[in-house]
């Protein structure tokens, strides 16, 4: 029996209460679908649409969990507006979604953990999407992971999962779309629009020059596009850095949708330094050569370093980064700033990299820096900024390397230290 997207959306409202219920006998069999902790548009849409996909072949409720605090949604105007619009079209709202701080995840897991610790599939199953290993603060999920749908480098974990659909495509939502299409060739227009959006955003509107789209992404767009009803989209926001041009999703084609989402995503110039660091953030544990564990955090910031320095000054940025390293107890923090900036009068896309060390690892900092500067990221010293031993500034010449490439590079460097 197939479930319509609108009845799935209407059922979301009971999920938080279900997860807070006293016992697994009261909550019953469950599937949790988690996106990654950066909770960007791809992650949010992938977890919602994958949960919906799973309900097509199973009567067990699949609950999407947005893997970031609810308040962080205000840092992501693109997610806020797209989800508000598409959920409303299906008779739901953002309030109905379960965010990670709406529930006590460790206690949910504990309730489903048998006394002998032998986890039986089918009681509580976890699916990971837009990541393929539980984040460092959610390692306890690992025995419950039954499925993975992701587009990052395979970290080689959760090898017992029955489904490991890991493929380096532009957008994770394209992989979910492919899976959904096998089960349901025609989908609701609100869902088509929801799935289409991260695919456009992650592939720069399938641009050949951006070179991010794969055949899987193109197939997803070709499948979804005829199912979108453009006239339905109408919502605007005034939360804009350019006050006289509110961004609207009342658009008529993919190009307009892409530019509207891109503009919304780029509205970061009014965020504080701390919000910039936490907006799109991921954290990992990495073992070095001697088996000692490093706490690694990478912030992706859609704001060029030059503009940020002009706005806040170098000292304030260094202070914010050091504060962040302390707050998250990091051994190493990378801040990847990226976006367009004027270079010799022409707006060009570029990347910069800030590398910061925690006190505990200062003795290893020069080894790590040597590894990073020798890597294919092609780092050069950032002109006009004075690096200290603790916080260093670089320009990253290899501009196509996003966090998907930078994390494996850093991991390799730490593993050899
Ligand atoms: Mn993604």
From TrEMBL:
Top-rank taxon, per record: Eukaryota
Gene symbol of the encoding locus: PPX1
Domain named DHHA2: residues: 258-414
Keyword set, alphabetical order: Hydrolase
Organism encoding this protein: Coemansia erecta
Family matches, as InterPro entries: DHH_sf (IPR038763), DHHA2 (IPR004097), DHHA2_dom_sf (IPR038222)
The protein's enzyme class: hydrolase
GO terms under cellular component: cytoplasm
Protein name, as recorded: Exopolyphosphatase
PANTHER family (alphabetical): BNIP - RELATED, EG:152A3.5 PROTEIN (FBGN0003116_PN PROTEIN)
EC number: 3.6.1.11
Coiled coil: none
GO molecular function, one term: exopolyphosphatase activity
Cited SMART domains: DHHA2 (SM01131)
